[in-house]
Amino acid sequence: MLKPLIRKLLFAICSICMFSTNAYTQNANLKIKVNDPVPLLPNKTLDGKTIDENYYKGHITLVSFMFIGCVPCMNEIGVLNKIKKEYTANKQFQMLCVARQMKQQMVQFNATDSSIFSRIRRAMNVDSIQYSIQPACNDEASKILTEGNHITVKSECTTLEEKYGITSFPTIFYVDKKGIVRKIKQGGPPAQNDTFFYKEVKRDIDSLLSE
Q: Is residue 146 assigned to a domain?
């Protein structure tokens, strides 16, 4: 019984998000451009960090904008987890996931319990996110609605669209030690642990770290 419910919920998430965010098209309407200061969001990370000017100061930061159910976003997680592990000893580098979800959903997604989003992650064979997560949505903006066996997702969160102009996911911002966006990469890997995507992201990180 649980597997059909997971499939229904996953389908609802993917359908709604692809419709509302145009996830698989190139985004020509980004409000934030290269050489702009990275804008800040008020929500804290799941581990309690405040994302302010001091967070970016003195670090090269990879900021990935994603949402649950976006297949390229899910494929991206394993690659970024690998990069996070490789750069753990480098205190000049950090990674941040900005998710088009609310806090509760991202907590569930990263858990190993029997919650809905945790089961979705495992059903998609996706690892938990090993880098910092900042939910973009307020709790009241994104809700799971259930009626009998019918599950739908209602999302009224437009934070990323309004503040960043992001309607294509995933989108990566590379931010320098002064909090300035230096490069923007749109689109994720076509498969999990994609070697080409990994090498491209690693090259961009090393380029900024070498400056």
A: no
Residue 164 lies in a domain: yes
Identify the domain containing residue 42 by its residue range: 22-141+157-209
Residue 153 near residue 179 (C-beta atoms within 8 A): no
Tallying the residues shown for the chain, one arrives at 211
Full-model pTM: 0.84
* pLDDT (tens digit per residue) in 53-90: 999 999 999 999 998 878 899 999 999 999 999 999 99
Report the sign of the C-alpha dihedral through residues 105, 170, 65, 21, in that order.
negative
User: Is the dihedral angle over the CA atoms 141, 84, 77, 128 positive or is it negative?
Assistant: negative
Confirm whether 148 is domain-assigned: no
Check whether the bond before 135 is cis (ω within 30° of 0): no
Residue 46: closest CA among 136, 140, 135: 135
- Look at residues 158, 108, 102 and name the one whose alpha carbon lies nearest to residue 134: 102
Give dist(CA 143, CA 105) in Å, integer: 9
Burial 42-77 (b: 16+ CB within 10 A, else e): ebebbeeeebeeebbeebbbbbbbbbbbbbbbbbbb
Does residue 165 or residue 116 have the better pLDDT?
165
